[in-house]
Fold these 3 entries.
Entry 1:
Amino acid sequence: MVTDPIADYLTRIRNAQMANHRIVEIPASNLKKRITEILYDKGYILKYKFEDDSKQGLIKIALKYDPSTKLPAIQSLERISRPGLRSYAKPEEFKRVSNGLGIAIVSTSKGVMTDKEAKAQNVGGEVLCSIF
């Protein structure tokens, strides 16, 4: 049993990139599916596919690399709020990730979204992770 599924999700992506894998498979949940959609919309991953099996399902993510340098598109994945220390922020308290080049993923009362979307909608929430 995994005590922190979001940290497990980020670690699987990080490890797959360090090993130069093209595809990573992750056990699915609704929160992980939404984070995957955000990563795709912001251009951090190539493709994703949600597969149903007899249990909870699977997320297959095609990782994105720079063709000339072979470096991954995601330079840093960092878990902010964790089970032992939750991190909440109001819209005006969101910190910029890598001088505005990265994103923070926030779980709000209106759903999971990026920090910029949450600020535009003037909602705060739990800061799950930062990516750049």
Note: The helical segments are 5-18, 30-41, 115-121.
Entry 2:
Amino acid sequence: MRVKAIQVIDQELQKKQVADFQVGDTLKVHLKVKEGDKTRVQVFEGVCLRKRGEGAGKTFSVIKETHGDMVEKIFPLYSPTIEKIQIVRKGKVRRARLYYLRKKKVIL
């Protein structure tokens, strides 16, 4: 019975429409940020490093360069704080994990 409950929750969360992106794509992740009693949308633009997990636990990592520093964020795919995910540019890569970009400059 417990397995069924988890499957039902996974199916409900996966009804949310999400852009079909791959590792290596340049993404704009629109996040809802709550400040006091107001909410605003903040955009995080960078290259998708990895996708992992399955069901409601899917996550993806995005890396960007800001003022000479590399910033990497991990987002839950079905998070309610993610308003939308835009694909800016498709990437052509031969790896499933692009961890080598952590040491390089990422060109957007």
Note: The mean pLDDT is 89.
Entry 3:
Amino acid sequence: MTPETVLTIAQRALEMTMMLAAPLLLVALLIGLLVGIFQAATQIHEMTLSFIPKLVGMATAMVIAGPWMLKQLVSYTRMLIESIPSLIG
């Protein structure tokens, strides 16, 4: 196995990780920003006020983006398993 092959596999793995994490992280970021603005404007600093909307938003994002995320993960795993013979020999 050449170093270029290892770097390519590692690069693809990092790209896949970022692609799969992006929808959930963006939803959490946007909801956190909106709740933070609301809390600053109303001076209500309740912990559950930031937790519950994020939980609902993340669950919604998972329902919407979940099939796409699973398809991407299965595709990457299949490609990785199919490349084993070329990596060995």
Note: The CA atoms of residues 32 and 51 lie 9 Å apart.
